[in-house]
Design goal:
The complex is a heterodimer of chains A (234) and B (408). Chain A has 234 residues and is of the alpha/beta class. Chain A is built from 7 helices and 10 strands. Chain B folds into 2 domains: 201 residues, no CATH class; 181 residues, no CATH class. The mean pLDDT of chain B is 89. Classes of the chains: A alpha/beta (234), B alpha+beta (408). Bound molecules: adenosine-5'-triphosphate (ATP) and magnesium ion.
Amino acid sequence: MAIITTHGLSKVYQAGKVPVHALRDVDLSIEEGEFTSIVGPSGSGKTTLLNQLGGLDRPSSGEVWVDGCNISALKDSQLIDYRLRHIGFIFQSYNLLPVFTAAENVAFILLLQGEKKDRIRQRVSELLTEVGLGDRMDARPRELSGGQQQRVAVARALASRPRFILADEPTANLDSQSAMKLLDIMEKMNREHRMTFIFSTHDQRVIERARRVIRMVDGAIESDQVQQPEPHQA
Amino acid sequence: MLYLSLAWRNLWRNARRTLITLASIAFAVVLALWVSSMNRGSHQLMVDNLSRFHTGFIQLQEPAWLDEPSLDHTLTYDPALQQQLLADTRLDYLVPRLETFMLAGGAEQVRGAMVLGVDAAAEQQLNGLQERLIAGEFFQPGDGRAVLTEGLARRLQLTVGDELVLLGQGRFASSAAGLFEVAGVVRHPLRELDNQLVYLSLPDAQWLLSAEQQVSTLLLTPHQLQQTDALVSSLRQSLDAQRHRVVPWQELMPEVLGAIQFDLAQQNFVLGTLYMVIGFGLFGTILMMTLERTREFGVLISLGMQRYRLSLVLLLETLMLTLLGVLAGCLPGWLLLRHFHHNPIQLGGDMAQVFEDMGMGLEPILPFALDADLFITQGLVLFVLSFLICLYPVLRVLRLDLMTAARS
Ligand SMILES: Nc1ncnc2c1ncn2[C@@H]1O[C@H](COP(=O)(O)OP(=O)(O)OP(=O)(O)O)[C@@H](O)[C@H]1O
Ligand SMILES: [Mg+2]
């Protein structure tokens, strides 16, 4: 069953005099449990597409449906709430609140959701242990490496029990070893929790880990392939 | 709790900047407290001095007295009235005065004088008049003796033991004449009055002026100066306006009230300027805090934090900053004011001379008021200020475009 479908999704940015067609008529369908990579040259519309899927920006035309809900039709505050309860985000950088510890950053999303305190504590430590940071729970972001910070972001994205997780170039600022480690963790979450991941990347080694690769050029989908992911040798 | 701890920690992200801002708020609070306390203190002292030596805090008069202060418009001062007034516990004691203008003469000189029939004990309680004796002593009620002010005694060339002649008109155009022995000479702090006062005991004055049981004004002294206004309004309610008129010091000395109000307007202008400067400093800090974190705000809203919740955090940050600043200013401010409240600054040299020359009987000291409302006002002003300042980041968060924030 598809969790996300887009119909004729287009986005035109008005940058100066010339309109920029960042997305052209994209029809896309994402199934539950996918581990999908969006690839393409710089400026091809990867970020724009992910923003549309995550309800961070509104389409110029077309629709985004998530679980039978047309999120493009939601009001701003409803959309914020929708994101809180149904979508996990991992950004390229500046993901975490610098004033909070790793544990607090994860707990934060649960507190926003109105979760009970005692349940939060347990879940946060489970999640951080799962991403391999069980011993760094009380570290502030600046005391963590870039890779560790991204793993906290993964834990936070998972914490809210979303329907799917969007990650825009999550490995872009990481060395390849940390990048592979992050991919391992994402893959494990995908396998064990059937969590749907959609991530964009430039990195060939990351692309190889995906099971479905959507290639974009100039705001349109050029190719959409299912592949056998390379087994990762740690 | 979440928002409080988030706001608190955000406040200390740039500890140095926060400390500088706190210091500037605290400094403004101390300065504002200093200025307003000193003004309040000297105003209170001025009102207190003038009331005590001149008009009293509240006067009870016959309604026509204010327009025509003659002996034909006096008040009957009997035990019944006394009892009725003193039933109000805010009222401390009463000071009756019977006054009129007469000719005063010694052996050589004759002058116009203001004759005051007083209850020496009550005057003593009001203004410590007896301590101002520079020669002789005070009379006993009805002993036929008088006390002169120094200026008048000099003009009449009279000293203790000499005889004083008083000549004038009594009540209802009766003629009044009397011979009094000078019992003492006082130095009155109000220069104007020092040149013209003759004190008689109340019974002597009433006898001289054919005004048995009459007083021209009855001074009412409240336990606390701040109670004056409330006391006046309740007296106005309980007394018959046809027979008794209640006049507070503000109406008795409108020029003093005017001077105080002018002083306060000046003070408020200066403090307003100070607050504007502080306000811009605070705004600068909040502006920097907001601009630096635009991207973070974008991330938070993207993750699902409602804009109003984020605004609340920003409001808390501003309020905490101000609250800390106000506290940091109030504590040393309070210690400072308390010190000068108990040890008023003694003015020396030229300043003391200026006070003397004003002839208002002011002691050359700068007293400091320690009223709670001075502190509360500072707090309120700064809170209003911080609310206003906080509007900027709040508006920014409410309008923030996620795409723009992500690219910043
Ligand atoms: N907010 C915006 N305003 C104007 N133009 C925009 C905006 N966002 C994106 N664009 C334009 O839309 C096009 C697609 O941008 P997008 O960021 O989606 O590309 P991308 O594939 O993510 O590139 P990269 O690999 O560099 O991240 C680009 O030409 C970009 O300049
Ligand atoms: Mg991009």
